[in-house]
Design goal:
This protein is mainly alpha-helical and 180 residues long. It folds into two domains: 124 residues, Arc Repressor Mutant, subunit A, CATH 1.10.10; 31 residues, no CATH class. The chain has seven helices and two strands. Strands 1-2 form a two-stranded antiparallel ribbon. The protein is flat and about 90 Å long.
C-alpha cells in the first residue's frame, strides 16, 4: 500500500497511473523521469503528473534498481548544470528591474522595482544552493585541505626526508632540554 495522499483526495474518475508491466515499459518510464529531471523538474512535480508513476514507486525503483539509481544520479548532475545556466539567465535579465508608476498628479515615473530584484536574487540563491548540493565538486564552495611538508625553499619533501627532519628537530629539542 502506498501513501500518496489521504483517500478523500483520490479522484475516482481520474485516469489510473501507468503500471510498468514489462521491463521495457518500466525502462521507458524511468528514461522519461530522468529526462525531465535533467531539464530541471523535481521528482515531486514529475509524480504529480498522472501520466507518471507515483512518487513511492519512483523511490522504490531507486532503492531496488541499481541501473535506474545510476541514471537518476547522472540526471541530477546534469540538472545542476541546467541550474547553473538558469542562474546566468536570471542574473542577466534586467527587463523588469524598472517599472512605470503613476504619480498622484497623473504623470508617470520610472522607478526601480526592489521587489522584482529581490525575487530574482532569491531565484538565483535557491538555484546556487541546489546546484551546490547536487554537484558539490563543481558548484559547492571549495573546502580543500592540502597536507604536505616542504623544505625551506617550498620543495615537497618525501616521507623519508620528513621523518629525518623531524628526528633532527626532536634531537635538537632534547639536547636543549638536557643542556639547561
Amino acid at each position: 500500500m502506498t501513501c500518496d495522499g489521504p483517500p478523500s483526495e483520490v479522484d475516482q474518475n481520474a485516469p489510473a497511473r501507468p503500471r510498468a508491466k514489462t521491463p521495457a515499459a518500466r525502462a521507458k518510464l524511468q528514461r522519461a523521469i530522468c529526462e525531465r529531471i535533467m531539464l530541471g523538474e523535481s521528482v515531486r512535480a514529475i509524480c504529480d503528473d498522472m501520466s507518471m508513476p507515483a512518487r513511492s514507486t519512483v523511490m522504490n525503483w531507486l532503492r531496488d534498481d541499481p541501473e535506474f539509481r545510476t541514471a537518476y544520479a547522472l540526471a541530477k548532475q546534469l540538472q545542476a548544470d541546467m541550474l547553473a545556466d538558469e542562474i546566468i539567465d536570471i542574473a542577466d535579465d534586467g527587463r523588469n528591474d524598472w517599472v512605470e508608476r503613476k504619480r498622484e498628479d497623473g504623470s508617470t515615473q520610472v522607478v526601480f522595482d526592489h521587489e522584482n530584484v529581490q525575487r530574482s536574487k532569491l531565484r538565483v540563491d535557491s538555484r546556487k544552493w541546489l546546484a551546490a548540493k547536487l554537484a558539490p565538486k563543481r558548484y559547492g564552495d571549495a573546502q580543500t585541505v592540502s597536507v604536505g611538508v616542504t623544505d625551506g625553499e617550498g620543495n615537497a619533501m618525501s616521507l623519508e626526508e620528513t621523518v629525518m627532519r623531524l628526528a633532527a628537530i626532536a634531537a635538537g629539542v632534547a639536547a636543549r632540554k638536557g643542556g639547561n
